[in-house]
Amino acid sequence: MAEPRPRVKICGTTSVRDAVHAAEVGADALGFIFAPVSKRLVTPQVAREAGLSVGPTVARVGVFLNQGLGEVLRLSEAARVSSVQLHGALLPGFVQTVAGYYPVLRVVRPADLQAEAAAWTGQPGVTLMLDAPEPGGGVPLNWAELRPLFPPGAWLAGGLGPHNVREAASQLAPAGVDAVSRLEASPGVKNPQAVKAFVDAVRGL
Question: CB–CB of 165/201 below 8 Å?
Answer without folding.
Answer: yes
